[in-house]
Write a structure and sequence with these properties.
Elements lengths: L3 E4 L5 H10 L1 E4 L8 H8 L4 E4 L6 H4 L7 E4 L9 H6 L3 E3 L6 H17 L1 H9 L20 E5 L3 H14 L2 E5 L5 H7 L2 E2 L2 H7 L2 E4 L13 H6 L5 E4 L8 H9 L5 E4 L19 E3 L8 H19 L16
Bound molecules: NADPH dihydro-nicotinamide-adenine-dinucleotide phosphate (NDP) and the ligand O=CC(=O)O.
Length: 325
């Protein structure tokens, strides 16, 4: 009998076909309050699940006695309670590396947009306010030859660094818990404390995973350490930032601008003050969202799923302490 699995996000037909070769698939193109009860029913019989963002905690796992593997189609896995998964001997996987270059493109886009005020100027042109002389009220600041500070120099941070160093002649500072020698040797990135990074960078890019240690890593004190002219970019998770402190820093000129792909609440609430600020460029958590990369992510998640339910070691197993036999 084929192992029974649930897919809870829309995937490409070729991904579906690949999984269906090995598994009996229950397919929810998306999960909402309407189909959630049906999903819970199906979960009782499922050996594997694939999707992104579903909170997989003790409560959910209590309702999934057959589960062997949980496959995120994302690199971040803050939605998974890995301790609880590990206790129950359930494997967890993510999709690292295949999205690095695409997310790095998004981050460079946010840096350029915020520095050169592209969304503001786009609106101005489209609303017929382009006057013959666009004076200095509309000037931006340069990106090239500035200092970029990366908090979280991992796969994505390194791809940003490559672009910034070789494309924009930027100097790169970074902060991790441990040194990334490859980034130092290949791209000339310099390791420093978080305080040094915040004081010296013209652009601060936050790229850590969301963990208990990184929750609100950027707060009032951290923004105050930054240059008044600095631009803050967050493409990690909304909760790595104290959003109230960010609003105050942007409103009171503690920092110049921000580019944000992620928010504490997603989709972001309409009355979030960040949405009405001209010095903030926003995106709807779309860092990896190109057709090519989303397909690679889904295919990697599918490979993880099929391996896991077939008793093999999935290619991107998250280290949860689960012993794979
Ligand atoms: N907006 C979007 O669409 C996307 C968002 N993301 C987010 O980006 C995150 C990073 O992805 P990726 O680069 O692939 O991950 P990696 O694991 O490759 O890199 C994460 C880096 O963060 C560092 N780090 C972890 N904890 C801390 C800490 N407490 N203080 C300082 N540095 C820390 C790690 O170094 P060390 O262990 O030495 O501290 C590591 O270098 C994901 O977890 C996800 O949340 C990812 C993809 C798309
Ligand atoms: O947010 C996206 C991810 O891959 O993590």
């Amino acid at each position: 009998m084929k192992p029974r699995v649930i897919i809870y996000k829309k995937v490409d037909q070729q991904v579906l076909d690949y999984i269906q070769n090995t598994c009996e698939v229950v397919y929810f193109e998306n999960l909402d309050s309407q189909n959630y009860p049906e999903f819970l029913q199906e979960l009782k019989k499922a050996q594997g699940i694939l999707g992104s963002g579903l909170k997989v905690d003790k409560h959910l796992l209590d309702q999934s006695p057959e589960l062997k593997i949980v496959c995120n189609s994302s690199v971040g896995y803050d939605n998974l309670d890995v301790t609880e998964l590990s206790k129950r001997g359930i494997m967890a996987t993510n999709t690292p590396e295949v999205l690095n270059e695409t997310v790095a493109d998004t981050i460079i886009g946010l840096m350029l947009s915020a520095a050169r005020r592209m969304p503001e100027l786009d609106l101005l042109v489209k609303s017929g306010q382009w006057t013959s002389s666009m004076g200095e009220t509309w000037f931006g600041v340069d990106v090239h030859h500035k200092v970029l500070g990366i908090i979280g120099m991992g796969g994505i941070g390194s791809a940003v660094t490559k672009r910034a160093r070789f494309g924009f002649d930027m100097d790169i500072l970074y902060h991790n818990r441990s040194r990334n020698e490859e980034a130092e040797q290949k791209f000339g990135a310099t390791y420093c404390t978080m305080e040094e990074l915040l004081r010296e960078s013209d652009f601060v890019c936050l790229m850590t995973p969301l963990t208990p240690q990184t929750e609100k890593l950027m707060g009032e004190q951290e923004f105050k350490l930054m240059k008044k002219s600095a631009i803050f970019i967050n493409c990690s998770r909304g909760k790595t930032v104290d959003e109230d402190a960010l609003v105050t820093a942007l409103k009171t000129g503690v920092i110049r601008a921000a580019g944000l792909d992620v928010f504490v609440q997603e989709p972001v609430q309409e009355d979030n003050p960040l949405l009405s600020m001209k010095n903030v460029v926003t995106l709807p958590h779309i860092g990896s969202a190109t057709s090519e990369t989303r397909l690679k992510m889904a295919m990697l998640a599918a490979t993880n799923l099929v391996s896991g339910v077939s008793g093999k070691i999935p290619p991107s197993l998250i280290k949860t302490g689960v012993q794979v036999k």
